[in-house]
Write a structure and sequence with these properties.
single chain, mainly alpha, 3% strand
């Protein structure tokens, strides 16, 4: 912290003159960038619709309430499909993510220079593309339906699960591995008895956490034809059936809240 003296007193300053100047320059640059971005956004925005948005929202709210409760009999299968998409997608992702994680971790990969970069590329590639985009691509390849949704969720989840898992593998206690290796155990035995037991709690936590996320993501896959309750939501929106839309949103909210409660309980039991 810079110090200066004046009239025999020591004055403490948070920044020196040069640091303060640099600080204000950064603020000026940030404000300039914000102003340019706002100018660009304003140029392509129809502000009439923005100012009229509260009125439109109020009109939609009046049409959407009360929800069409009798329509709930038609939502049992779609919400079940949504849960299946999330659950099966998570299971498939874990099956594929585990070997990728072991190949990506520095202490378990067969080759740091060759195999590990390929595994990291798989992790980055699957994490960088949203599940909705994967669903659009898969629908064009294998057709619409629940299966496309399951595969989209699985591909999207591989990178997430593998990244967290390979970080857990790299943080294991190496003394346990060394002890098992000293007994003359093979590479697979070391992995099975020295590494896997240490990462099982992390694996369980990752699985539950990702399943909770996939419940949310799978609810919207139906908007592009990948099955689930999102398909019912899309159909209701297309015909402006607002009472059905409000009921579907309530069902989605209930499913997300329940999944959050279940995942919290399971993570609490694991930890």
């Amino acid at each position: 912290m810079p110090v200066s003296e004046r009239e025999g007193q020591t004055l403490w300053k948070r920044r020196s003159g040069r640091e303060s100047l640099f600080h204000w320059i950064l603020w000026l640059i940030g404000i300039t960038i914000f102003a340019l971005c706002w100018q660009r956004i304003s140029a392509v925005t129809t502000w009439y619709f923005v100012w009229d948005a509260p009125t439109i929202a109020g009109d939609i709210w009046s049409r959407a309430t009360p929800p069409k409760w009798e329509y709930i009999t038609q939502l049992g299968r779609p919400i079940w499909d949504t849960l299946n998409i999330a659950t099966l997608g998570t299971i498939i992702a874990l099956i594929l993510a585990i070997p990728v994680a072991f190949l990506a971790a520095r202490n378990t990969t067969p080759s740091v220079l060759l195999i590990r970069p390929i595994a990291l590329l798989i992790i980055v590639a699957t994490r960088s593309i949203n599940a909705l985009i994967w669903a659009l691509l898969l629908i064009a390849i294998i057709g619409p339906g629940v299966f496309a949704g399951v595969v989209a969720i699985a591909i999207r989840s591989i990178g997430f699960c593998a990244k967290l898992l390979y970080e857990a593998i790299e943080e294991i206690d190496e003394s346990q591995v060394e002890a098992i290796t000293a007994t003359g155990a093979s590479r697979w035995q070391v992995m099975a008895y020295g590494i896997v037991p240490q990462i099982l709690p992390a694996l369980a936590g990752i699985a539950v956490f990702r399943w909770d996320i996939n419940i949310r993501e799978s609810t919207v896959l139906g908007l592009v034809g990948a099955g689930g309750i999102g398909l019912q939501l899309s159909s209701s929106l297309n015909v402006l059936a607002w009472p059905q839309v409000s009921l579907i949103l309530l069902v989605i909210l209930a499913a997300v809240v329940i999944s959050e409660w279940v995942s919290a309980k399971v993570r609490g039991a694991i930890i």
